[in-house]
Structures are given as structure tokens and as C-alpha cells.
Amino acid sequence: MQLLDGKSCSEKIRQEIAEKVAEIKSKGDRAPHLAAVLVGNDGASQNYVAFKVKDCDEVGFNSTVIRMEETATEQQLLEKIAELNSDDKIDGFIVQLPLPSHINEDKVTLAIDPKKDVDGFCPENVGNMSLGLPTFLSATPNGIMELFRRYSIETEGKHCVILGRSNIVGTPMSILMSRNTNPGNATVTIAHSRTKDLQKLCLSADILIVAIGKTEFVTADMVKEGAVVIDVGQTRVPDSTRKNGFRNVGDVDFDNVKDKCSYITYVTGGVGPMTRASLLQNTLKAHQRK
Ligand code: NAP
């Protein structure tokens, strides 16, 4: 079994980006600029945004965090998005999800200028991805593709089972894996909460990508010998032994599954850092497109 080390892969990507930023600055141009809108006080969201700012600092990007109260209205958020859309100094921005329940996430996604949608969630960018046209690829699926690429994992002709069909992970992942690209060219099955006999389906997977948000859902009896297992899940569970009072748990029962796998990711240092690296890649692309 080989652990897919998203932490060290993402460090390499950040180094590559930092070199490009140094080159941009040496020509007298301004650095790429990422903005993040954070609505409310969700602890996990605050952490994710703090990491994104740290990543920007490390590669030499400018960053701006716009904090809005939990009680901010949908209209106030849409006005902020309109401002960011027309701000020439901002190359790309994200609105950290989830949003408070009184705000419609679809409306928010649709309001973002596709040219600044570095999360790759807007219909235009998802459509371009489906057609194989230049675009901002959704950060998490693209981070996973980058892991396959950097570890030279063969995906062609393999049966790839994806658990979860969310707009931000499972669905775009299924598109990227089935396209005529390398990595890609897999035969893809996408499963969800209504899928029958998940165990049998998972056992047929050469590559199993799990994004359902259910802790340790995938157990050893669901995994084929030699499979590649990618655990996207990241659920905070209380843990009094930790300074911050919680730990992240994945969707895969890592301890019991790992020995059956050829490659596997762990919840810490796996897919998460690759997602963040993809966001930086997209922001650099947004800057270069100008
Ligand atoms: P989501 O929007 O909550 O969607 C969950 C998906 O899982 C849905 O399609 C759902 O099916 C399916 N599902 C739920 N229970 C299931 C079951 N028992 N059997 C089969 N399918 C089931 O999830 P998401 O936003 O994609 O996130 C999934 C997990 O990934 C979460 O833990 C999240 O924190 C994590 N995540 C991590 C990263 C990262 O960078 N590491 C990025 C994004 C998300 P239905 O459609 O039928 O409801």
C-alpha cells in the first residue's frame, strides 16, 4: 500500500506557483489576488478561509477576506458579489459554503462572474469542463486528478466508482474521470443514497472515490484487493484530547481498509491540501487570462 501524500504534492504545486508569481512581479505586474467571502461564524468555514489566506501568503498572492454577519441578507451578499465582479484588482473570488439557510446557494453561484469563479462552480465553467474546453475546473476533483497525474496512477479502462453526486465533488469528478484524457478514460459509475447493493458495486471498483460525509462508511469488506481508494470525506467529530476539541474523520475506515489498497489517501494530508492547491492554480489562471 502506498499513501497518496496530498500534503507534499500540494507543497510542490505551491512552489511551482510561487516561481510563476515571482516572474510576474519581476516584470512589474501586480500579483494575483484572491478574495474570499465568509458569511457567519461556522468554525470549519473560518478554518478553511484561514488556510486559503495562508496559502496565498506563501505563494505571493494578494488576498482579501470579506466577513459578513450570520444575519446578512441574500441581497447584501449579492451586492457584495456584484462589487467583486467589477473590481479589476480582484482576479478571482470564492464564497465559502455552506451559507446560512436563509441564503439561496444557487442564486449566489449564478451571481458570480464565470471569469472570476475560481471554485469552478458556475454553470458556464461546469459546462466547459463537460465539453473539455478551457475553464476553471472544480477544485476538489481537479486536486484528485492531479494526485493521479503526479503518482502516475493508471486510470484508463479502470472501473471507477464514485460515492456521492454533489455538484462540487461527485458529479464533476465523474465527468473528469470519464473524459478522453489522461488521467481519465475510466468507466465510471456514480452512486448515491438511493443506490442498491453498494457493497457489491464498491467491490467491483478498481478506483473508489468516496465523498458522502458519513464517517468511516466504507469498510474493508467493500474494497477490492489492490484498489485505489480516495477519501474526500471530512467530518468534524468532538475529541477532548485535541487542543481544538475536534478531529476530522474521513468516509473510509482507513485502519482496516488500507492494507487492501494499492494506493489510498488519509483524511489529513490527503485530498484537502490538493483542493487548496487547485484553488491557487485557478487564481493564477484567472490572473493570466487577463
Ligand atoms: P453532499 O453535498 O452532502 O453530498 C453527499 C452525497 O453523498 C450525496 O450525493 C448523497 O446522496 C450521498 N450519500 C449520502 N449518504 C449516502 C449513503 N449512505 N450511501 C451512498 N451515498 C450517500 O457532500 P459533499 O459536499 O460532496 O461533501 C462530501 C464530503 O466531502 C463531506 O465530508 C465534505 O466535508 C467533504 N469535502 C471535502 C473536501 C476536501 O477538500 N477534502 C471538499 C469538499 C467536500 P443523495 O444525492 O442521494 O442525497
From TrEMBL:
CDD domains named in the record: NAD_bind_m-THF_DH_Cyclohyd (cd01080)
Pathway: One-carbon metabolism; tetrahydrofolate interconversion
Signal peptide per UniProt: none
Record has ATP-binding as a keyword: no
Record domain Tetrahydrofolate dehydrogenase/cyclohydrolase catalytic: where: 4-119
Keywords: Amino-acid biosynthesis, Histidine biosynthesis, Hydrolase, Methionine biosynthesis, Multifunctional enzyme, NADP, One-carbon metabolism, Oxidoreductase, Purine biosynthesis
Domain of life: Bacteria
EC number assigned by the record: 1.5.1.5, 3.5.4.9
Annotated GO MF terms: methenyltetrahydrofolate cyclohydrolase activity; methylenetetrahydrofolate dehydrogenase (NADP+) activity
Annotated Tetrahydrofolate dehydrogenase/cyclohydrolase NAD(P)-binding domain residues: 138-289
Residues reported to bind NADP(+): G164, R165, S166
Coiled coil: none
Record flagged with keyword Transport: no
Role: Catalyzes the oxidation of 5,10-methylenetetrahydrofolate to 5,10-methenyltetrahydrofolate and then the hydrolysis of 5,10-methenyltetrahydrofolate to 10-formyltetrahydrofolate.
Stated family: Belongs to the tetrahydrofolate dehydrogenase/cyclohydrolase family.
Assembly notes: Homodimer.
Stated name of the protein: Bifunctional protein FolD
